[in-house]
Amino acid sequence: MLLNQFLILSAVLFSIGVYGVLARRNGVLVLMSIELILNAVNINLVAFGAFRASVSGEVFALFVIAVAAAEVGVGLAMVLLLYRNRRSIDLTLIDQLRG
Amino acid sequence: MDVLLTIGSAAGDGLALGITEGGSWLLRNVWLIPLLPALSFIGILFFGKKMPRGGSELGIAAVGIAFVLALLTGIAWIDHRDNFHGGEVHVAVVQVDDHGVAHGDDHGAGHEPGHPSLAVHRTATWFQTNGVEFTVGTLVDGLAVMMLLVVTLVSLLVHVYSTDYVHGDRRYTHFFAFLSLFSASMLLLVVSENTLQLLCAWELVGVCSFALIGHWWEEKPNSDAALKAFLTNRVGDMGLLVGVTVLFFAAGSALPDRFGSFSIAETNALANSGALSHTTLVVAASCLMAAVMSKSGQFFLHTWLPDAMAGPTPVSALIHAATMVVAGVFMIARMYGVFFEGFQIGGSSINLMAFIGGLTTIVGALLAFVQRDIKKVLAYSTISQLGYMVLALGVGAWTAAVFHLFTHAFFKACLFLGSGSVSHAVHSFDMKSDMGGLRKDMPHTYRTFMIGTVALAGLPPLAGFWSKDEILVGTGGWGLMGGTGGNGAYTLMLGMGMLTAALTAAYMTRCVYLTFFGEFRGHGEPHESGPRITGPLWILAGLAIVAGFFNMPKGFQLAPGSLQERFGHFVEPVAGYFPAISHATPSWSLAIVSTLVVIGGIAASGWYYFIKVEAASKAVGTSLTELPDGPTTKYPLARMGHTLLSNKYYLDHFYNGVVADGTKGPLARMANRINQDVIDRTVDVVGETAVKAGTVVYEKIDQLVVDGAVNASGRGSSSAGEELRKINSGKVQSYAAILFAAATVLAGILIVLV
Questions:
Q1: Is residue B127 part of a domain?
Q2: Where are the alpha helices (DSSP H) in B118-171?
Q3: β-strand pairing of B87-91 with B15-16
Q4: Backbone φ/ψ region at B51: left (φ over 0), alpha (ψ -120 to 50), beta
Q5: Which of B128, B212, B463, B596 could form a disulfide bond with B547, CB atoms 3.0-4.6 angstroms apart?
Q6: Is B175 a domain residue?
Q7: How far away is chain A from the Cα of B727, in angstroms, using its nearest Cα?
Q8: pTM score of the predicted model
Q9: CA A63 to CA A65: how far, in whole Å?
Q10: Is residue B105 a contact partner of residue B81, using CB atoms and an 8 Å limit?
Q11: In angstroms, what CA-CA distances link B569 with A76, B78, B345, B400, B564?
Q12: How far A69 CA lies from chain B's nearest CA (Å)?
């Protein structure tokens, strides 16, 4: 089985996601990039699960999807609140928690 | 091969102590007797003032019940002495074999069928420390029972007497409280099972003595006398403390698996068996002897006793004549195994105890001649008689000494209470200026005083004769004339005893003449005291007559055999804790000679006072107390003697002037110099050095090193924080960048390492 292709796809997705998280200033896009990272991981889990003829990978992936849905729900709610309060969802402007 | 222990039975059962844990209920529960007056002490102290009779009824009731209990205990002991066949206590001892190697007697403690005359022993744990158990308990034998009877009886009579004598006193209630405490302490002392308990009781009676001598402390001489009594007793108490400690460790070394032992029975039995070294016993006996000398007023620590007469007369009768001052004699009798072996009484002709006793008895009797104060005559007489008892113990006449203690308690208490009755009537103790001719005004006091005097002088058949005669026989110095079988040949002691017999008769004759004969020299109208005073007097006088019959000598033809030596039979132990003493054979010739000596003393003194002084009084027309041209004015030697006696052998001068001032003056100066030049100097130097060292430490170490380090670390963390705060930008993406960078680095490390 061609495990390599899945791992390469996963690594590419992960890297795109990291780039998105670090470089994008739009909060929604950052959340979407996080989704990319998570899905890269999901691909890895499913690929290894199939490779080892075990359902554990798929089960873990399902859990990750469920948790990611919840995370996106919270994240979008926060972005919405940010927009309401500040009329902007630019993450570089939000630095009130600095020391 | 075992060389020790001939007392225990053959198969090495251990050392037989001569005590039993059995016995009748009364004998095992004598602790009730001291408990009663102890409770009454507390009761009087807290509730006495509210009672209708100021607490005296409580004291009398407690001592009265104690007396009844003591009587019952005495009856129980008489039965126990001959008819008890219970188990005897044995203890294991360290035996020394021929090679000098000590090893434990592994048969251990056990109970064996005993013989009669076992003392009844009962203990309870007092406290435990470091695995050593200290007990408190009772050891009841004939001696203890006899003392219980004497103490409770005299105490009861003195209580009754005091209700009249100190009537209306401002510290009436306290007086009775301390009488109760004294009774409790003395009773505790006589039933003591171990020396530690004995020591505590010994100190307690000393405290009571102090409090009661100083009962009227508002007057300086009284509180001085109390202090003097207390301090003089301290001197001896040090001896007691050391002696008891020495015996504790000595007994411990002889008992396997035991650290030490305060038990009187064990200590005595070990001393008797030879398990304790002679050196130890000499040291212990000498230390204990110092305690006896102070408590029982032996020469040269006797000086407190005459001064103790500053206390109320009932106190003098109870404490300073009948009971407390015989505590020393009792202690010798109790620890007789130690003294007998320590001073090697058997087979000798002189030892420390006998010599001190003999010296005291003469010294005290001589001093009684020059006293004006009737109580001081009796006080010196007490010293003299206590010397007699110590002399008797010193020559091995144990029973005689204890018997003399017994009879002396009655007639001396009678005499003291009589003198109190007289002083109650004439409001003074001075025989020369305030008494004389009282026989007509005070018939009861006069008669009882005469009975006491005759008993003290030792004329047959009154009590003093029998006990004094036994002591003289016991010296064993009468070998030339048929009296033999004593513990040694103490001829010197016999001579001292004889001389004292004559002196005693003479000074009591003088005392009686000055008090009751001639014409009244005082002021006012003396009258007889009330029944609460004369009642006890008559009871004591009756006992002074009959007490001697309890111990009529063996082989005395006029008494039936069943009445001979009853006292000795029931009081003298035949047990492992008592040494094997031999008993002198009584002698008619000695009795006759000693009686003649007494009559000689009475005759000489009577001739001087009843004939010469009486005639001179008639010639002058007033009642004289001595001849105007008597021997002290005619002969310089007699005058010197009189001066010496008047100054009490200058002992008080010696103690105050030489010992006390000698200690106070140079010692104090030296102490001051040491204090100023050595101790203070040292302290100063140490202080200055400390200040200098402190300055150096502050400037160099504290400021430079410690503070420097603290400041440097503060500045370091401050600048580190300054740099680090830049990381904390508050921007989510820079945090995420750091997170991923760190993860990358860690992943890199993982790859490189794995």
A1: no
A2: 142-165
A3: antiparallel
A4: beta
A5: B463
A6: no
A7: 9
A8: 0.72
A9: 5
A10: no
A11: 117, 10, 22, 12, 9
A12: 21
